[in-house]
Amino acid sequence: MSSNKNRIINIISNYNAESKKIAEVLSDKLRKSKFLIPEKYNKNAELNICIGGDGAFLRAVHRNNFPNIPFVGINTGHLGFFQEILPENIDEFIDNYLNMNFTIEEISLVDADICTRDKCFFLTAVNEIVVKGTKSKVVHLDVFIDGNHLEKFSGDGVIVSTPVGSTAYNFSSGGSIIYPTLQTLQLTPLSPISSKAYRSLPNSAVIPGNIVVSIKPELRYENSILVINDGVEFKYSNIEEINLTLSNRVITKVNFDKNMYWNNLKSKFL
């Protein structure tokens, strides 16, 4: 990277005033460093810079179909767990990027095959896929791990999260924090019912990423299921089975500080 000729960087911003202002400042600074900033998303770019919060980051990943181009985030949101750079540190970020003072880390994704009586649908998530009842209904789900029946779950639903998603909805629901480089999924119950009539696991289970988690709703609940992919709801009719596994695809993220993960945990949650 000795020359910046024809080096393209995508800037992806949400629509609030602060983010748009930061995007303009960042664009000017990058152009002065001889980078090209396209008006629309360019698939030949070397870097995606996402400005906003974690929601903006997730939308950017999904809208651009989980691109191979690395991401880095500038945080103008509230939590900003994905967003590493503060707006006041843009100059430092550009210097570090030009001098290649960074590493590239992979973020694992979770795939879901949702099979109905008629066909199967495919979803991929960065953080988590949630299976729960419509209109806050209690659902009854048979849960299988690698073909082995684990439980007949009764409650609000279950979360299947990636390691990077373990600090999101999963963590808020009592799940464990999993270091991002571990190849695992986590199955976390949402308000499980534990009574003489129903017995569900009260805590999360960490599962090897190459093992399939299968969820089968009881027949009477097959039309009362919502599948939520990184916060976006999907409704399918006549669901028979949902199979989830760690995806073969990954996205990548630029990391400027090897201690950023632990610093993030402390600053965001403690």
Textual characterization of the structure:
- The chain has 270 residues and is an alpha+beta fold.
- It contains 5 helices and 15 strands.
Strand order of the largest sheet: 5-4-15-12-7-8
Assembly form of the protein: single chain
Radius of gyration: 20 Å
What integer is the average pLDDT?
Answer: 92
Number of beta strands: 15
Total helix count?
Answer: 5
Determine and state the CATH class of the largest domain: Mainly Beta
Fraction of residues in β-strands: 35-45%
Q: Which bin fits the share of residues in helices?
A: 10-25%
Largest sheet: 6 strands, antiparallel
Per CATH, what is the topology of the largest domain? Tumour Suppressor Smad4
Number of domains: 2
CATH superfamily of the largest domain: Probable inorganic polyphosphate/atp-NAD kinase, domain 2
H and E order: EHEHEHEEEEEEHEEEEEEH
Helix/strand-derived category reads: alpha+beta
Q: Per the principal axes of the C-alpha atoms, what is the gross shape?
A: elongated
Outline the low-pLDDT stretches. none
Based on the structure given, which CATH architecture of the largest domain is correct? Sandwich
Intertermini distance:
39 Å
